[in-house]
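May I ask for an example protein's residues together with how it folds?

___
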Amino acid sequence: MKAKYEPRIDLKNRTRLETVIPLATPFIVFVDPSDACNFKCGFCPTSDRGLMKSVDRPWKQMSFELFKKIADDLVKFPDKVRVLRLYKDGEPILNRRLPDMIQYAKDIGAVERVDTTTNASLLTKEKGLGLVKAGLDRINISIYGINSEQYKTFSGVNIDFQKILTNVKNFYEIRGNCEMLVKISGDTLTSRKKISF
């Protein structure tokens, strides 16, 4: 597997905002396909069920109809939105309509690129193929440990670490033109254990 270390954010080709504001069209639009997550990470508000309830934020999936309305509204901007980021706090793959959302946004020409972020625990080969066929341009995969014990500490749930590695490897093999970025939590690097696929 060919890989390189670099920042997740493109620091070389960035537009200086002071040269373009006010914007007629936003560069990036975040849409959260799922308010729910299968992890309970301490840093994430989604894992705090009490907080979610207190702010009246439902733990559910965005409907495809609502997503279509949002995408249809994006087309009304004078230019294409550069990136539609289908992620915020939840696990996007929990929404079974995620591939339909990607394909719809691409088909109507609402955006230049569509990307998402996942913890990869649910990224089966079948689901990965669905994302690739739908036209996903980039996937950001967050890795929270280098073994099941570290995952338990970080994510608050029991995870089969080998399954996550398999999911990442399988997606790499089927990704086609989809750019794939893997982010590993800084604390995991101190263990000095080599992760191999």
Remarks:
- The CA atoms of residues 139 and 180 lie 5 Å apart.
